[in-house]
Amino acid sequence: MAELLYRLGKLSARRAWVVILTWVLVLGAAGVGFAVGFKGLATSFDVPGTASGEVTDTLAEELPDYAGASGTVVYSSTDGEPFTDAQREAISELAADATDLPQVADVIDPFDAQQELDDARQEIVDGREQIADARTELDDGQEQLDAALEQLEAGQTQLDDGQAQLDDGRAQLDAARAQAEAAGAPPQQLAAIDAQLAQLDAQQAELDAQQAQLDAGRDEIADQQQQIDDGRVELEEQAELLEQGAELLALSEGIGVVSEDGATALVNISYEVSLLELETESKVATAEFFEASPIEGTEMGLSTTIAQTVPSLVGIGEIVGLIIAAIVLLVMLGTAIAASLPIITALVGVAIAVLGSMAFSGVVDMSSVTPVLGIMLGLAVGIDYALFIVNRHRKQLLEGADLHESIGLANGTAGNAVVFAGSTVIVALLALNVTGIPFLGLMGTVGAFAVLVAVLIATSLIPALLGLIGMRVLSRKARAAVGTVHHEDTAAKPMGNWRAVLTMLGTIVALLVVAIPSLSMRVGLPDGSSEPEGSPGYVAHELTAAAFGEGANGPLLVTAELPGGQDDAEQLQAQLDVATVISEQDSVVAVAPIAISDDGTLAAFQVVPAEGPNSVSTDQLVRDLRELPPVNGEYALGVAGQAAINIDISENLNDALPLYLTVVVGLSLLIMIVVFRSLLVPLIATGGFILSLFATYGATVAVFQWGWGAELIGLHATGPILSFLPVILVGILFGLAMDYQLFLASGMREAYVHGAPARLAVMQGFRAGRSVVTAAGLIMISVFGGFIFAESVMIRSIGFGLAIGILLDAFVVRMLLMPAIMHLLGRSAWWLPKWLDRIIPNVDVEGAALERRHHADGSPSNEDEGEGEADAPEADAADSSEARA
């Protein structure tokens, strides 16, 4: 590899314009690809297979109206007084007109919705009054019916008495007639008796008629009683339904769209598609529509669903970071033209990587953070890698090397180290794909691509530019001293044992102390409170929290599975049962049923927690709801919403982190064993990385979660750490940490292989690499630190984590802890079992064999390329044997 890069460096220097033109064409192709393929970036994240995702999918099938994205536009009167009629009318008109915006499914007029809610409450009051009146009427009817029945029973008693008298009279007449007939009474006497009997029959007929009337009255009373009884049953059913509705309405107290003081209103907007499918243009169109029509006397805010668009890729902070990097380069390299090369080539590489990556945004869902990560890494490693090569080239020129020969050697030595260092970063970033989380894998892939482009540019475009500027890479004073400068280090002395012990213990203790806050790390996704002060998203969050409570900024969506086949009363009872159980959970402010699917198998509820989606209480509420057994033994619950999504993404990332860490650390150990031909050096290098990683976590938690020193970076709100930040930091910081390990430890190994005592070799290697590693570390800290002041809190936390991570790893672990431990280990640091030494390849990362080969008989700069390359294999073999010896 070193020989190949040597040839590439010399060829690039001699064919500079061809190389430059090639990269210009590549840049142009990336620009064309971007113009054709760029379809926008997403501002949300999706992790497939999560519990909240399953709930959302179920809603999409059963209740599609509630599966789409939603957002709110918040209006509040500036004087704190209720809205005027004119203001209410203006808000309602905007709500009505907004239905024509792209991808908008529905817009709810807050005043109509509040009126409906007030009407529902009034209906409960009126319904109770009507039921009370109906009960009174039924009671009055029952009293009248009871009175009529009493009269009927009194008439029946009289009729029964008359019937008894008639029966007695008939019996007496029948007995008298029988006696008369027995006594042979004359016919006249018998006729008189018969006449009396006839009178009794007439009376009997009257009694029978009266009985028929009484029976008819009794039947009528029975019918009326049945009507009253039926009416009472129906009334009780209605009363029960009314009370169920009243209980549900009472449970939903706290959910509203117009505040109690009438000074704040929420315009709810629902979209036709999910949040992932919601186009940025649609959100921008919504925001611009409301912002274009300000209402006098009101303040307006937009929820993050609408306001959170793609952040600007470059801001003032990033420019300041580049300026600081340029100053470091100027101090390190001595001339403006030399200092400008790393920055120019890094910018070219970033442009190619980012434009090329975003060209595929129409094929894959790419989050807005993804290209920003590419910019961060592209700038940082692009500048550093170019610096390594330019710095090596300058040293060789000062020692009197031929220009093209020096470029070739710099590319074959420092460039070889750059290729290896870049490879470790690329491997670490590509390993993010093993997490199984698409957006994270894509971020790693784009970052790896940016690093790959940086490596290719550093080993081709940098030599070409060095060939063009020639000796102007040195200052005039330096050019006058060419050939008289020698970089041999004769002043190096091993550090003292006590110094090594104290340094080791001090750095370990310091890193552990800084890591303490990581024990309380909470992860999540940012909400409106973390948006820049005065931004629409922040204003909406604060106005909503002030008028409706913190929980209104992140309501939960809870679903309940119903058996189906239930009538309206059974469905209402099921909703009440579920809502009651939910309301009994801690931190629940209000619960409201919002829909039941057409087949009656799914009910949806809106749940407002006491605090926002990133709070500990809301996090616990989601977990409690998910752990509840099915309500009544049959209604299983599901939970979605921002808090649920935060939990799901965080848990998936936490599950993926051990595997990812194992893969990355395992690969690192193998690679470093090959590079350093040692077992202990890779182990202590990895241990140092883990220390710096957790110290980075601790510092990030202290600032972004605890708020320590947050005001120094303009952070006005604290909250959970970005959910995927811990994983991202592992990949990036590991790769970069191994870069610094390589540039320092390889120099130590080179000195040791060339016969220096082990402890002296540690100091010689450290002194040889410290200046360039210091400059490289400062450059990376400057570049990453520039993103701390970005608009997006996600980008700010990534920039801070990377900047503090480089600070701790490069300056504490690599430049303090590692040399101290290497000193204490002495020769054992380079121990390697003989059987392992025989089977692993000999990797000359620094290209030392190449350098010796091309300086063995003097500079070959005046020789033809073919002659200079003829005996390379033999030289390689000799150097390999020497290194093994």
Automatic annotation (TrEMBL):
<dbReference type="Pfam" id="PF03176">
    <property type="entry name" value="MMPL"/>
</dbReference>
<keyword id="KW-0175">Coiled coil</keyword>
<feature type="domain" description="SSD">
    <location>
        <begin position="343"/>
        <end position="468"/>
    </location>
</feature>
<feature type="compositionally biased region" description="Acidic residues">
    <location>
        <begin position="862"/>
        <end position="879"/>
    </location>
</feature>
<feature type="transmembrane region" description="Helical">
    <location>
        <begin position="657"/>
        <end position="676"/>
    </location>
</feature>
<feature type="transmembrane region" description="Helical">
    <location>
        <begin position="372"/>
        <end position="390"/>
    </location>
</feature>
<feature type="transmembrane region" description="Helical">
    <location>
        <begin position="683"/>
        <end position="708"/>
    </location>
</feature>
<feature type="transmembrane region" description="Helical">
    <location>
        <begin position="341"/>
        <end position="360"/>
    </location>
</feature>
<feature type="coiled-coil region">
    <location>
        <begin position="117"/>
        <end position="227"/>
    </location>
</feature>
<protein>
    <recommendedName>
        <fullName>SSD domain-containing protein</fullName>
    </recommendedName>
</protein>
<keyword id="KW-0472">Membrane</keyword>
<feature type="transmembrane region" description="Helical">
    <location>
        <begin position="720"/>
        <end position="740"/>
    </location>
</feature>
<dbReference type="InterPro" id="IPR050545">
    <property type="entry name" value="Mycobact_MmpL"/>
</dbReference>
<keyword id="KW-0812">Transmembrane</keyword>
<feature type="transmembrane region" description="Helical">
    <location>
        <begin position="446"/>
        <end position="469"/>
    </location>
</feature>
<feature type="transmembrane region" description="Helical">
    <location>
        <begin position="768"/>
        <end position="789"/>
    </location>
</feature>
<feature type="region of interest" description="Disordered">
    <location>
        <begin position="851"/>
        <end position="885"/>
    </location>
</feature>
<feature type="transmembrane region" description="Helical">
    <location>
        <begin position="795"/>
        <end position="817"/>
    </location>
</feature>
<feature type="transmembrane region" description="Helical">
    <location>
        <begin position="417"/>
        <end position="440"/>
    </location>
</feature>
<dbReference type="GO" id="GO:0005886">
    <property type="term" value="C:plasma membrane"/>
</dbReference>
<dbReference type="InterPro" id="IPR004869">
    <property type="entry name" value="MMPL_dom"/>
</dbReference>
<feature type="transmembrane region" description="Helical">
    <location>
        <begin position="500"/>
        <end position="519"/>
    </location>
</feature>
<keyword id="KW-1003">Cell membrane</keyword>
<keyword id="KW-1133">Transmembrane helix</keyword>
<feature type="transmembrane region" description="Helical">
    <location>
        <begin position="313"/>
        <end position="334"/>
    </location>
</feature>
<dbReference type="InterPro" id="IPR000731">
    <property type="entry name" value="SSD"/>
</dbReference>
